[in-house]
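Pilot study result, target chain (415 residues):
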Amino acid sequence: MTRYIAGALLVFAVAACKPETQRADLLKTGIWRAVVEIQNQELPFNFEVVRDDQGGYDIFLINAEERLLLDEITIADDSLDASLHIFDANIKAIMSGDSLTGVFVKNYADGYEVPFRAVHGQEYRFAKSDSTDSEVDFSGTYEVTFVHEKDTTEAVALFRQSGKRVTGTFMTPTGDYRFLDGSARGNELELSAFDGNHLYLFRAHMDENGALTGEFFSGKTWYETWVGEKNAEATLPDPESLTYLKDGYEAIEFDFPNVDGKIVRLDDGRFEGKVVILQLLGTWCPNCMDETKFLAPWYDENKDRGVEVIGLAYERKDDFDYASGRVRKMVKKLNVKYDVLIAGTDEKEVAAETLPMLNAIVAFPTTIFIGKDGRVKKIHTGFNGPGTGKYYEQFKEEFNQTVNELLSEDFTVQG
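Predicted structure:
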């Protein structure tokens, strides 16, 4: 999702061998409640620590039904340093009994760190409560408008409530906010997510007519207000209408290096006569992570049918070594077998210059379907991931239908 303001109940899983200096006994197993501080707000999330069979740890960050694995951790004396999945970010903390105290750091952004603390044995997310019920039910589909000082964004909110617990997400034209988790107290709603790279905090008040008025905090500076009205038929713009070829173009052309520096072109012989799926992504992008988790096993199952996937990575820094290092890490962790090329940086206007045949690059991810004749057949902007439930299932069904139709087209390789 390009505007990255989105989120999830994150599983924070960390496994490591124990060095001689490691004080593994200082990190307690079980459930923890963590808080990061952004914009004078407390954003909570939970994680679980378990021991692995090498004497180290697995730490599961929990957002709704998601448990996201983080498998790199260093413990030396009383210090913990956890690398956050595929993202260029870390949690660094001092361990002391039932507490962790430290910072969340984005390594690619100069000076980006926010306070972090965690307490062992606390299973709640926002506030303790002996009651299991809420007098207001936030469940349902809402037509939402986010309002920022520079623009507005239409969205669809999907909420599910059980007792006081509320989970769900927001879908926008550029992607979804992934797995949000929180609670209802009276007519107040609180939701949060920490995906390893982005921080999201939502609040809302429901009036007597069922309308929602809320606030949204993301990271150190982004703030929006939002309003929502329940509407089971709420929809977003057609994702196939937002990104398109400029007049006079029928095909995509590029020559980008892979992680080893070898130039790859779409007109290379190995792609001739095949259906090609281009994935515009960034390793910093959680929606892209979700799409890659779908595409990687899908490619393994379908590559022998005459279809190829090519990832075009747009990274945070204009530095080949940095970008290729981030892509290598993603490829390894997500078991990606298709090519992922280094295409440029993530600023949309600059990224669009690398593919001048497109009207714009509106969102990461964007998926481009190319037929066996080399012509662009469809461009899908954004991604409805697993946090959207039935919409994710619809995406998978439509994706497979599109590929099957393109594979069935007649085409004879010339030469």
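One observation from the pilot: The chain is about 15% helix and 40% strand. A full batch analysis is planned for the follow-on phase.
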